């Protein structure tokens, strides 16, 4: 079975008819395609969670550090 060679004109003819642009779109999803979509969404979600966790834990929160320093200063002042 030989594959048909399609040109740009063939694709344009498939998109445009005498009334203008064709707006009907048919998408066929197989089980294999659905599994790829689900897997990619799952992996991207895991990556987002992992990156946000790493950023949260490995880059110091400057406001929290200032608050902790103020608390230490207050406790030292109260102990005197």
Explain what this protein looks like in three dimensions:
By secondary structure, this protein is mainly alpha-helical. The chain has a domain at 30-80. 68% of the residues lie in helices and 5% in strands. It has helices spanning 8-15, 31-58, 62-79, and strands spanning 16-17, 20-21. A two-stranded antiparallel ribbon has the order 1-2. Strand 1 and strand 2 form a beta hairpin. The model has no long low-confidence stretch (mean pLDDT 85).
Summarize the structure.
With 80 residues, the protein is mainly alpha-helical. The protein has helices at residues 8-15, 31-58, 62-79; strands at residues 16-17, 20-21. The protein has a two-stranded antiparallel sheet with strand order 1-2.
Q: Using the alpha-carbon principal axes, give the shape.
A: rod-shaped
Give the end-to-end Cα distance, rounded to a whole number of Å.
92 Å
- What is the chain-wise order of helices and strands? HEEHH
Structural class estimated from helices and strands: mainly alpha
- The main sheet orders its strands as 1-2
Percent strand equals 5-15%
Task: Let me know the largest β-sheet.
Answer: 2 strands, antiparallel
| Tally of helical segments | 3
Unreliable segments of 5+ consecutive residues: none
**Helicity, in percent?**
55-70%
Mean pLDDT: 85
Radius of gyration, Cα only, in angstroms? 30 Å
The overall strand count is 2
